[in-house]
Amino acid sequence: MVKKHPDLYPDLGLRDIIEILNNKDKSRLACATYSTDGVEVVSDLSYKDDGDFYHDFDIYYGKSSGNLLPTVVNVHGGGLVYGSKELSKQTCIYLAKFGFNVVNINYRLLPDVSLRDQIKDVLDASTYIYDNAHMLNINPDKIFFTSDSAGSFLTLAAYAIMKDKNFKEIFDIPSKKIDFAGLGFISPMTGLVKSGSLALINEAARKDLSNEQIFFTPNILRALKKSSLPPTIIISSEEDFIRSQTLTLKNFLDERNTKNKLLDFKKISAYPLGHSFAISHPDLRESKQVIKEISDFFKRI
User: Fold this and answer.
1) Beta-carbon contacts of residue 292 (< 8 Å; ≥ 6 apart)
2) pTM of the prediction?
3) Closest to 237 in 3D by CA, of 198, 293, 290
């Protein structure tokens, strides 16, 4: 039985929730101290020449002995309504230390744009990175994607548009077909939540979508019925309020005999291991285990 978690933000409006999240992470990021030894950080490149901060990306180059390291593209979470690449910067830098070049992207946010626009941003970023790999000094032949929370929803949607002709036609977004070597999902969101305060994003997410497009918002895995995912590692915990969506993804992969690994952390007394804990608290012992497990999983592919 999947444990039902209490509503995180009862009786609050969407803007109130966004402000709480922004303040919480602003404080966290201001206090973050970590070493970038062995990693070259290149910040605020752009995948669209429009001056929009939300079309920027960073690259964290791992230490190489000469050959181009495998590439990881990261899509941050934030419920589709908030956040930027800064949220997952520390975790991505830690991953780069294991021998990857990590590209950490921004995308525009609801309600200022549509969900379709957000999916297009992830696709546009992916295409730019792939087409300009040699200029960026990254490897286009082995590209992994990592994401957490709502970033996973957008990653799955982008992957489906690349791979499924019908889904691509429904959303009418041009895309280049890029082979993903593997996927890593931390507390993945696979569909809009049905109830509770975070269901407030649903109206913004479904705005301007056709009925055909809305069909996929409760469960983006509907877009992948005719597609197979690459090897995938998934991370969640008993205290993750959308853990049920992780288990849905795990079942989806198992039913299709897709190589996958699930890390499902038990509740401990010392501190909470909640939603996307490896992003929000990257220095925890368990978070470091997550980063090492993702690295090992990718290197075995």
Assistant:
1) 98
2) 0.96
3) 290
Reported as a single tens digit per residue, the pLDDT across 222-238 is 999 888 999 999 999 99
Kindly report whether the peptide bond that precedes residue 111 is cis, defined as omega within 30 degrees of 0.
yes
Q: What is the distance between the alpha carbons of residues 106 and 190, in angstroms, rounded to a whole number?
A: 19
Report how far residue 163's alpha carbon sits from residue 156's, in angstroms, rounded to the nearest whole number.
Answer: 10
To 10 degrees, what angle do helices 150-163 and 115-131 make?
70
Question: What superfamily in CATH does domain 14-299 come from?
Answer: Alpha/Beta hydrolase fold, catalytic domain (3.40.50.1820)
Q: Domain ranges in the chain?
A: 14-299
73 and 121 Cβ atoms separated by less than 8 Å:
no
Q: For 69, list phi and psi in degrees, rounded to 5.
A: -75, 160
Taking all residues of the chain, what is their mean pLDDT, rounded to a whole number? 94
Look up residue 3 and give its DSSP letter: P
Query: In 64-162, at which residue ranges do the beta strands (DSSP E only) sit?
Result: 71-75, 101-105, 143-148
Torsion of CA 33, 36, 40, 45, to 10 degrees: -20
